[in-house]
Write the structure tokens for this entry.
Amino acid sequence: MMKLKRFLRPYRTFVFMVLVLTFVQSLATLYLPNLMSDIVDKGIIKGDVSYIIRIGFFMLGITILGGIASVWASYFAAKSSAGFGQVLRSRLFSHVEKFTLAEFDQLGTSSLIVRTTNDVMQVQQLVNMMLRMMVMAPLTAIGGIIMAVYTDAKLSLIIVVVIPVLSLAIYGILGPGMGLFRTMQKKVDHLNRVLRENLTGTRVIRSFNREAFEIQRFDQANRDLTDVSIRVYKMMAAMMPVVMLIMNISTLAIVWFGGIRINDGTLQVGNLMAFIQYVMQIMFAVMMVSMMAFMIPRGQASALRINEALAMHPEIVDPVQSQASVDHSGQVEFRDVTFRYPGAEEPALSHVSFIAQPGQITAIIGGTGSGKSTLINLIPRFHDVDSGSVVVDGMDVREMPQESLRAKLGYVPQRAVLFTGKILDNIKYGKEEATEVEILHAAEVAQAAEFIAAMPDGFHSVISQGGANISGGQKQRLAIARALVRKPEIYLFDDTFSALDYKTDAQLRLALRQEAEAATVILVAQRVSTVIEADQIIVLDEGRVVGVGTHKSLLQTCAVYQEIVSSQLSPEEIA
Ligand code: ADP
Ligand code: MG
């Protein structure tokens, strides 16, 4: 919680206003019972009407002042806590944006969503409450005690009995359930995860007729959350009646003992009434403090989760003294690269060495799980190598700023990711200032122009979430256009072509060869037909390079390559 305090800093003027205004409000509340006792003892009992009217108006004035202060205090508290939430959310978001794939895996996407929304909300609510209570609770408690003692010191002994009883009662009710809040946030996480999996996997669920199972799974998560929530609310529900009971018994005691003292002539009626109100105020303050003590663990649970995300520092960071490479040829070199995923037993890549020259197409082929995607992902530095080095333009990728490294690259992932919005904007994502001519050209090279033109609004057609309204191949072509529009030095295609039909695949490769004439092209492929014309083919098997060469030379020398070829092509085609 304390660590998050810094996010309130931009709003310190508002916070200050809240504190000053609640101070005024608390003073007004403390002053009123005193005036009332004056009206009763000096006005009503003595029959002095003008005094009653005078003090009456004065009380009205104080009440209005207190009311105005209270309204403005709430306003400023809302402004600062909402602002706090906004700052915190945006900080969290920009922090998470820097995460590498490893950190995403560690916390989980759903949990990160819940942390950025629900958890921030919890903390924000706590901040709001604390701002309002911070001054008010201690001031009314201490002020109330002083005023009560001042009104009747002997009767004040009642307070000494009542406050511990009240505190113990509240603690007894709320204490056992403190841990429930952390459990509750975990259940919210879980529910979100189940929901997310269901929403993204609808097709699979339906085709396997697993709806009933999934409904049951969701019900289970839902019921878990409900159970915990019910326990929390039961606890809160038990509190009010107990507190009211203690308050009423105290009033009874005050009236009882106060009555005796009035009989003795040591206490006046007005003072007794004022005294009752002071004790009420003190008890209210105690209750507020207890409520806080009870809200804080809840906010604390959320604050911890937020801090956990904030404290997680991406493993991949820019070097302290980085410099952009002066060479812009686009050469990519792997020097004896070994890489192991965190927690994996076997390295995904071992001792991989090769050079991809500019103006050439380097193709990578191999079975599934042979490490092709892993190899591609090392170039934009999505992961860092364990040993060896990845060198781009003569410089180790760990020595240059990530931004300048990635500016050289046009990356098309294995699974095309598009964003909700127009086709135009999705292509522009690759280069913000791209002109219409550039966009059209990129679409043409990517073999996407035709199907875009056939869509009702052409380039202004809207892609729905995740690109659900276009086919896999179309998505892939838009992702290619997005990379092409950048005119990068290095093209990285991760199995981009297998979603295309053979004809489009061939046309695209032809267009690409002209387009990317001077660039370095590294493409992963499953099909032999895709790699056949490549200047250099690298054959991967279980993370090792088992062959480097052209189609022809590999056919002679590489057994793994021969196997792949003979499984795909007929003997005549090979010849
Ligand atoms: P390919 O793209 O050739 O099909 P990958 O590069 O995706 O293969 O995977 C290579 C190996 O690394 C596989 O054994 C796979 O199980 C493993 N792997 C891939 N991604 C991860 C990951 N994020 N965490 C742990 N292991 C992974
Ligand atoms: Mg792959």
